[in-house]
Amino acid sequence: MQTVLVLALWSAAVTWTLLLMVVLALRRFRHAPRPTDADPMEEPEDAPLVSILVPARNEEHRILRQSLASMLAQNYPAIEVIVVNDRSTDRTLEILREVAESDSRLRVIDGEEPPPGWRGKPFALQQALAHARGEWILSIDADILLDPETVRKALALARKYRCDALSLLPRMDYVSFWDHVIEPQALNLLRLGMLIGSVKARLRWACEGGATHAPAAHADHKKQGISFNPLFFLSAYVGDQAFTIGAFTLVRRRALDAIGGYAAIRSEVMDETILGIRLHQQGFRVFAVEGTHLIHTPARVAFSELWEAYSRVICPAVGRNPLVLMASVATAAILTLLPVGVLIATFLGMIPTDRDMAAVIGSAALGYLAMVAVGAILAEEDRQPGIYHLASFVGFAVFIAIALSSVWRRYKQRDVIWKGRPVFLQGMAEPGQIAQHERQG
Questions:
Q1: Which residue has better confidence, 263 or 419?
Q2: For the purposes of burial, counting CB atoms within 10 Å of the CB of 303, is it exposed (0-12), middle (13-18) or buried (19 or more)?
Q3: Would the pLDDT of 10 be above 90?
Q4: What number is the average pLDDT over the span 64-79?
Q5: Mind spelling out the 3-state secondary structure of the chain?
Q6: Whose CB has fewer CB within 10 Å in the chain, the N or C terminal residue?
Q7: What is the DSSP letter of 43?
Q8: Residues linked to residue 169 through DSSP beta bridges, in sequence order
């Protein structure tokens, strides 16, 4: 038994140590544009129209007014803002109309219910896209706050790297213990992917020597389904795929049209990620960087809200296949919980600190410290107190618990309800199902 434990602990320690070495080696390639960065777009005639699309559903108690104000305050001469009220049941539509009265650049669309085969957010974006006139399309969540230079800097960066799509990862404004220890663990996977993507993009594009990009021909996306598999998403974030981020994605209109608009992701739960994958599959350039200095958003404070937000992603990814679920949970537990569990047991005197147990304790300490170091380096732009990095295992434990809860949800036929719509069990909800869940929830 002790031999198995030592092997598991050393596996975790080696994995985190190797990952730490990778992160340290790539750290200098981190790209986090700042408002003060120079950009080549100085003349008004060099400013193509940017259409900002905002899906808004039940945003009354978030920061909808402030978010729209930050979009309309952009130091960029050519923008239009199109907001779709995605069948809100609160005062969202009323707030939108009040803001629109004060600025003609803001257009409000009272959205329709998603038809069969569509999820809410992609359909809201598709409705906004039908009214957009811009050469560039910028989709933004309704709770994102932008620096006045954000649109200008993002467009300049997309031009610099000859991107067809550019995403910015926002800074989270953490408040509670739970958002401090849960949110960074999810964001760090994106940050690792952005580090690797930045290196690969610079090397690839440097070798091209400024060659004009010619995207591949459009293909039939109905034949390119994305299966829910955590290994697939891991490869998308840190492998040869490319991903976008739902909070802020700037995409060239002709590239978006080439994949069929947001219909390309109409049935996807992970629409934010898969839009970039769809574009990448068709030969378009997709790039994601940290937007820490340009955009930020309030973190989800309540534990229940965090639980449902990540259940929306994790349950469909692992909960439909028992083998995937068991493999995912076992791997995650060995890597993130076993080392700290051994250390806690040692501290409580449950494991003797003698020579026979030295390998167990030593490998556990190495694995835990390397895990903490990886998280702290990846999340260094967050500038959160170090105590929360030491407690990162709590966030991983929550993710494992959410994965396990998918079994209970299937047994009890309890779906994940996100903003009043089912996600996990029912798959694509019909309008009648949606209305029923809204009445129940």
A1: 263
A2: middle
A3: yes
A4: 96
A5: CHHHHHHHHHHHHHHHHHHHHHHHHHHHHCCCCCCCCCCCCCCHHHCCCEEEEEEECCCCCCCHHHHHHHHHCCCCCCEEEEEEECCCCCCHHHHHHHHHCCCCCEEEEECCCCCCCCCHHHHHHHHHHCCCCCCEEEEECCCCEECCCHHHHHHHHHHHCCCCEEEEECEEECCCHHHHHHHHHHHHHHHHHHHHHHHHHHHHHHHHCCCCCCCCCCCCHHHCCCCCCHHHHHHHHHCCCCCCCCCEEEEEHHHHHHCCHHHHHCCCCCHHHHHHHHHHHCCCCEEEEECCCCEEEECCCCHHHHHHHHHHHHHHHHCCCHHHHHHHHHHHHHHHHHHHHHHHHHHCCCCCCCHHHHHHHHHHHHHHHHHHHHHHHHCHHHCCCHHHHHCHHHHHHHHHHHHHHHHHHHHHCCCCEECCEECCCCCCCCHHHHHHHHHHC
A6: N
A7: S
A8: 290
Q: How far apart are CA 36 and CA 257, in angstroms?
A: 33
Beta bridge partners of 50: 79, 136
According to DSSP, residue 217 is labeled: P
Contacts of 25 (CB under 8 A, 6+ apart): none
338 vs 226, which has greater pLDDT? 338
- Pairing state of beta strands 295-298 and 145-146? antiparallel
Beta bridge partners of 167: 249, 288
- Show the tokens assigned to 297: 């958003």
Whole-angstrom distance, CA of residue 339 vs CA of residue 371: 10
Q: Which of 402, 426, 230 is nearest to 323 (CA)?
A: 230
Strands 417-418 and 421-422, bridge-based pairing: antiparallel
Sign of CA dihedral 314, 319, 321, 324: positive
Q: What is the pLDDT of residues 79-122, one digit of tens each?
A: 999 999 999 999 999 999 999 999 999 999 999 999 998 999 99
- Chain CA centroid to CA 305, Å: 16
pLDDT at 182: 95
Determine which of 260-274, 392-406, 418-432 has the lowest per-residue pLDDT on average. 418-432
Give, in degrees to the nearest 5, the angle at Cα 134 between 73 and 222. 120
- Name 146's bridge partners: 295
Is the pTM higher than 0.70? yes
Tokens linked to 182: 């849960």
Compute the mean pLDDT over every residue in the chain, rounded to the nearest whole number: 85
Q: What CA–CA distance (Å, rounded) separates 119 from 268?
A: 7
Distance CA 23, CA 28 (A): 9
Strands 136-140 and 50-56: parallel
| 344 burial via Cβ count (<10 Å: 0-12, 13-18, 19+) | middle
